[in-house]
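the two lines:
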Amino acid sequence: MNLGMKSWIALAVVAVLLAALPLVGSNYFLRIATTVCMYAVMAQSWNFIGGLAGYPSFATAAFFGFGAYTSAILQNHDAPMLLAWGSAGLAAFLFAAFLGGAILHLRGHYFAIASLIIAEMLREIVNTLPDFTGGGKGLNLPFLRISVTAQAQFFFYAMLALAILCTGAAIVIHRSKLGFGLRCIQQNEDAASILGVNAYGYKTAAFCLSAVFVGVAGAIYASWVNYIDPPDVFDVLLAIKPMVMVLLGGLGTIFGPPLGAIILLSFEELVWRSFLTVHAAALGFIIVVLVLFLPNGILALVRERLVGRGTVT
Amino acid sequence: MIYLQIAANGLVLGGLYACIAVGFSLVWGVLNVINILHGTFIVLGSYVAYFAYVHLGIHPFVSIAIAGGMLYALGHALQAGIINRVITAPVLITLTLTFGLDLILNNAMLVAFTADYRGITLAHPFRSLEIGPVFLPGDRVAAMALAILLTLLLYRLLRDSKIGRAIVAVRMDREAAALMGVDIKRINAITFGIGAFMAGAAGALLSIIFPISPLNSPVFLGKAFVVCVLGGLGSVPGALAGGLVLGVIESFGSYWLGAERAVTLSLGLLLLVLFVRPSGLTGRRGYE
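prediction for all of em together
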């Protein structure tokens, strides 16, 4: 059985297990599960540009907020919810294509800084256009007229479906010519170009892929919490946490990002809620330990152990 | 005449921006590390000056040396103990590491000092200057003069001292410098320490002008980004030029477009420069 087949089976098993979750879990548990699915989408998306192509993008927060605002504005102009979600994904995709044209010729730190300030810039623009975006006061979204439990289940299934879709896309892309080309770019972009990899096109494709699912996730999030404002949806931590999750799970792997999302958010829920005032410091501490002692992620550690044992015996 | 006033305001602001950015630029250029901690270092310097003034009555301008010295020690220790371990790793790793350290330090400041905005009210305030039609607040002018003096001192240090030549050598070619007998790790730690010193000194200067709060650190970091990209990397004259340009542009931008759009303007400017001239206005090509 080849690796692709294994990945698909693993995805199907996980999907079925998770889909049964509302039968056993409370609404509180479903809320956490929805958050995990949301971050799994964001980590998986970042992995396209950060893990495969090796470009340290901080634009995740920008795409998230862009999707959230696109959907919220459309719904405030009476667009149906599902159409607004789809439009948010499309808008984020187009925004990334446009943005990629402007900043993907940069490398290393310059790319990082350019992508970092996109979210800041969008936040300022939203703040200065109060008639259109609600400005600093934020925007309300229409309520769903169903019970609280039904809402919790609805948004959980929506995020889960998106996470499965995104992971499916990752399985296809990691094994495709595009994925191969992106890994070449990560290792040596100039050499890849000389050998005929269309570096600019590939990078733009990866950047757009890192935007489209995140845009939809932002749109679903906005409907889920019913209210968005600029500091919430353009928060720089929305760019940092997915990166940390990918580093935690394993850079450039398919199941590393969702695994990292589960680990980090479980930790957050179990440990940090008792220490609210040092919430940020705890995340910082995890980052420092991770970078210094586990640079290849947990999956690599597991694999090393397995391979190591295999060669000894 | 109003334009003359706006230009003067911009230049005064720009001198301070240069001082904010020059340490950041040095660390980026020499170590190839984006030091996300820089904004928090500046705020920490402001707190040192604030407490020295409130409890001991030490003038904030005297605190430049105290704040700078303390931050030098902190910076040196962080680089020697932690960042040097991954200094050759890809951009993503070092960037994430300084981000993690910043989360810890900024959170520690929030717990220790709270998020309240504090300010220093000097017992003997500076008198304002009037030069022809132009009116200048004395504290800002004095702070700017000291900021530019510090920046020039750093320039002399890099040009004339043995350590300074070693730092420049590492910036130009790490391997060649190592072959010539430069202890790279030691130079890394000293450079990071100097970057932190400049941040602490800038913080002490700014403490008499801007409110002090841990929430300000991203603002200062943002300014450092823009100045660095405008002026090019790792060069003191570049940071000075970038700072002055940014100060003047922001000053005119606030006048024409309104103060709330000044931030958008400077960020937009940053993106534009990155798009058309990634090596900065004065920078040489070759840095990506």
